Amino acid sequence: MIRRLPYTIRSSVAILLQIPLSIEEAAISLGASKMKTFFQVTVPMMAAGIISGAILSWITMISELSTAVILYTGRTKTLTVAVFTEVLRGNYGVAAALSSILTVLTVLSLLVFNKINAGREISL
To answer: What is the CATH classification number for the domain harbouring 79?
Structure first.
């Protein structure tokens, strides 16, 4: 998660820079504290960018093998490690089935990202 956190941060910063300061200034001038303004005005306006960045991070995390192999223990096994193990064992049918599951999860994540993003471009 730490390796992919910049995707979420870049997306959040990009959406934050698009929010006009006048909205926050209006909330403060109407008597809201800076903390209340941030959580009730700014964060809801940033929600799409935060969620989009989190989905981008998720998509890259679920298909990454290098970190998963390093962090692999007997009790934890990710899909990518399972695919790698089955290929090494020569169980190509099981590896193909697990790869299909991973592909479906990735495609579903991308569809959720596109739905949340609603066709807007987010520059990273």
So the answer is: 1.10.3720.10
